[in-house]
Design goal:
Blueprint lengths: L1 H6 L1 E4 L2 E14 L4 E15 L14 E14 L3 E11 L3 E8 L8 E15 L1 E2 L11 E2 L3 E16 L3 H23 L1
Antiparallel strand pairs: 1-10, 2-7, 3-6, 3-10, 4-5, 4-7, 8-9
Length: 185
């Protein structure tokens, strides 16, 4: 998901800025395998800038960041199989995340789509000026938001062949006959 990491990031020191990513993946499972689930994981990294004056008092400026993640699995012929989403906001630092599907049992072809939107806001504040003069200089805090190392994991398991079920039933029949003979003897 290198493309997602490149696109799902933005920053600003004045006003509002945003960016997004749309991705689609088609997965065809080998015969004899089924998808039992999938997950998307990574780390959010956000920065809310410094909003305090040099004296430690709150400044009047603001910074905000937000990210929306949506992930959906669907069959070309049958509609949605699984959908998940998450919203994150006011992230200042690193925040690991995992979005996991419910248990699935899907064979053949499945499509995965993802939509991610990042948004940041930053408005300046003024340092205190002279008591009877103009306000001090403007300070522009930096607001940032991005996804680091997004990873898509697909969970699969082998599907027993019909011959395997036949052998299992034949084995159970042999065990049943052996028990019956023991009881009769």
């Amino acid at each position: 998901m290198t493309d997602a990491a490149d696109m799902a990031k933005t920053s600003t020191t004045l006003g509002e800025n945003g960016n997004g990513y749309n991705g689609m993946y088609t997965i065809t499972l080998r015969p004899g395998y089924r998808m039992t689930g999938f997950s998307v994981s990574g780390t959010m990294f956000g920065g809310l800038g410094e909003i305090t004056t040099p004296g430690g008092l709150p400044g009047e400026g603001t910074t905000k960041n937000a990210m929306k993640l949506q992930f959906e699995a669907y069959r070309p012929e049958g509609g949605t199989v699984s959908a998940m989403h998450a919203d994150y906001s006011m992230v200042d630092g690193k925040l690991p995340f995992v979005l996991a599907s419910e248990p699935l049992s899907v064979t053949g072809t499945i499509n995965l789509s993802t939509w991610t939107m990042v948004n940041v806001n930053s408005y300046p504040y003024y340092l205190p000026g002279h008591p009877d003069g103009p306000p001090g200089r403007e300070v522009y805090p930096l607001a940032t938001m991005q996804v680091l190392k997004p990873t898509l994991t697909i969970y699969t398991s082998a599907v027993p062949e019909p011959e395997t079920y036949g052998m299992l039933l034949a084995g159970m029949a042999v065990i049943g006959l052996a028990r019956r003979r023991r009881r009769a003897a």
